[in-house]
Amino acid sequence: MRSHLMLLALFAFFVSLVFAVIAKDGAREQLRFGGMMFAGFLAAAIVLGWLMYPFPL
Amino acid sequence: MRATTTTDETQSGTIVLLCLASWAIPGAGHLWLGRRAKGLIFLVALPVMFAIGLAIRGRLFPFDFSDPLVGLEAVADLGIGVPYFIASALGYGVGDVRAVTYEYGNAFLIVAGLLNLLVVIDAYDVMMGRK
Question: pTM surpassing 0.90?
Fold first, then answer.
């Protein structure tokens, strides 16, 4: 797998999963917390990616 | 007095053993404490994350503290426990800096180790009755 977006999503999924399971006890709370965290990871990556777009390395 | 001391020593021995088991096998501490669902999730998710890191050519860093970041990365890699030793023994984790996924692989390996250390702390908290 070489797609950066897919790897980013996979990474966000695992991190969100572990954090949700550590931080919350009920399945519903875990799903909500994990989902929010996963969405936050993706949104932050996409927004930061576009913000950095005009600045070539 | 003596009985209390013996009980304290037994309890601290159990805590050390629990933390070691939790570090060596991700999720083992939670399974030990009867938190079966959490333990199983950690047991699957963290080694899979570590394996993905190896599969996409991440590197297991050497314990070289002349470059502090490399040393710290090695400590983080070791956080995953037994999978680290298995991967090292089988010759995985050499890393390929030319691969486009190299940095992602490192992120997976390092974060899997650090998350497992958080899991150890969580197991400790559960045992102490804080959660």
Answer: yes
